[in-house]
Amino acid sequence: MKIIYQKSEFLKNLFPEVNMNDNQAVETAIHKYLIGLGTTGIVKIEGDLISVELPDIFEPEFPKEFYQATNLCAQGKFVEARPIFEELIKKTPHVSEYYRNLAQTFEEDGQHEKAIDILIDALRWDPKNHWALILMGNIYARHKDDPDTAMTYYDQVVNADPGNFIALNNIGGAFLQNGKLDLGEKYMLKAYQINPKYPNTSYALGLIAEMKGDNLSAFKYAQEAIKNSDSSQSPIFQNSLKTALQASKKITDSDEGKEDLVDFINQLELKTDKEIRIEEDSTIPTAATVQIAENHQRDYHLIKFKPALAIDHIILHELVHIHFYHEARQINENKLFIVQGEKEKEFKRKYAKEIKDLIKKGFPEKQINKVFGELFHGILRQAFNTPIDMFIEDLIFEKFPSLRPHQFLSLYRLASEGLAAVSNPQAKNLIPSEILFQTKIYNMLAARHTDRLLGTRFEEQYKATGREKEMLNSLWDEFLEYRNDREPGEEYELVQHWGDDLGLSDIFSLVDEEAHQKKRDNVFSSKTPEDVLESIERDPESLGRYTESEDREMSDFIKSHSGKNINMAVAFYMVDALEYFAKLPIEKIKEIAFEVATLGQSGIDPKKQGYRLNKIPGKVFSGYKLLAYYYVSWAKAIPEMLSMLQMPFDKEYKLALSFFKK
User: Fold this and answer.
1) Model confidence over 248-296: pLDDT tens digits?
2) In what order do the strands lie in the sheet with 2-6?
3) Strands (DSSP E) along 98-238, which ranges?
4) Distance (Å, rounded) from C-alpha 568 to C-alpha 561?
5) Domain extents for the chain?
């Protein structure tokens, strides 16, 4: 066995009574120490190096008693472990680790002086024992408030093994616990440079940044720690998640990243040659929605959002929808997501037994019908949005690093809501198993994507069955095939394929936008303005609620707007609808909207008279008037689903609004 010392301040700490400049005194002190432990050796001193040859001593393998004692320490039973280590030292006094572990039992009990004395023995036998050096440094840093002496021991670790990132991390942690922020950061940065994927170091640097008020760095380090943590149950993961969310909240409350958002809006307006308007709307059912100019016969795109956390990310997400739409449209690959009028009715018929069973259990029929209507529209939103949203979030993560805290906060909230939606016991009682399966798969796909992107651990919380995992993996693999080289419009292929695989393609259609637009224009271009006016004149009942002065005003209105390729009959009745709905709460309008939609499933003939609605008693509707009420009720109560009706009355509605506001 050979021990190498180097003359230094460190060695003086091990042999404090010796003059390091007196070689004879050094040699005598070492011999004296060895003899005291019942052994001898050959001491050689050459310059600053001191070597001690112990020819009859070899490093033994640790006996079972050593592991027994360390297991007791792991359980916090230090007093029970202590005599085992002491007995091992008596038998083989040259093993440094025996001393180090014995010292730790005293350090854990607060007997720091006793621990120091034993650690000196550990380091005399092995001056490069990293854990003994760190423990000694920790005692001086944490308990003696002596950073200079602590540095003496810590520097030995760095000099002996500069690549030992765990040791560097522990040294930095000791300084941080003692309130030495700059020293702690110094060692943590050294550890991070060696291994940026060690989560303990990233978490510590995140805390340091947070204490310094650098929220962006705090988020960056905390998010890295989340990604690199072994388990969602580990303290590092949980604490890093808390830090990341706190830092994200502070950042989103400020203006950080907003410049990039504004720049992107300007780029999109130039690219699409359309203004982009953004407005708050607390009535929409989702966090945000976008209305594409071309689909609404407007000269601007409209983004609506609910007041919420991370609004900038929510708006950015909808902007990327516009970007994707424009890319696909440029090469005639854009698709429209179409739902025919009969589909909701068919959907409810499909689950008639489940609906009947729930009613028998005491649930109000009205409530159950509402629930199944929401299920229908909810699964449609998932079918269309989930694959597209995954591509959108990839782009945001890659192209907008300044907005990653916004993205983290927003996606964390959405993933939490998605998990809660299918984990609620009441959902399992109300929702048919097939719909629950479909919803869960879409939610799990979004969860896996968020996990891969941000390091979160939502997917594991779903506790998926074998069948669910098989479907999830199949759809995910298909996403990966598109992920890195998606061409404009290819996202629609995933919408269709996933809908097919999940048995949903019978309730929606993806149709070519240009072809559908031509077909729709042909259907609704057969009526001339004269035909419309004649239709109105044949329907005196529908005009009955206007006064003579209002009738003249409307007549002037029609004359002033004729010849503009607008269905004036519909525009006329839309004003009537706007006035009627102005007195009603949104929930009441929504009930009317659903009733008209149900009636519309069997078709509404514009030329037919005598339509009636249960929700509007005493009123008789012509076909055109009912179509106007149909459109306006959805525009007011369910605007996010309006485009799915495929009713070409956006211009009429805009005109009616302008008149109604006068």
Assistant:
1) 999 998 877 789 999 999 999 999 999 999 998 888 878 899 999 888 8
2) 2-6, 49-53, 42-46
3) none
4) 8
5) 2-53, 196-254, 258-513, 524-660
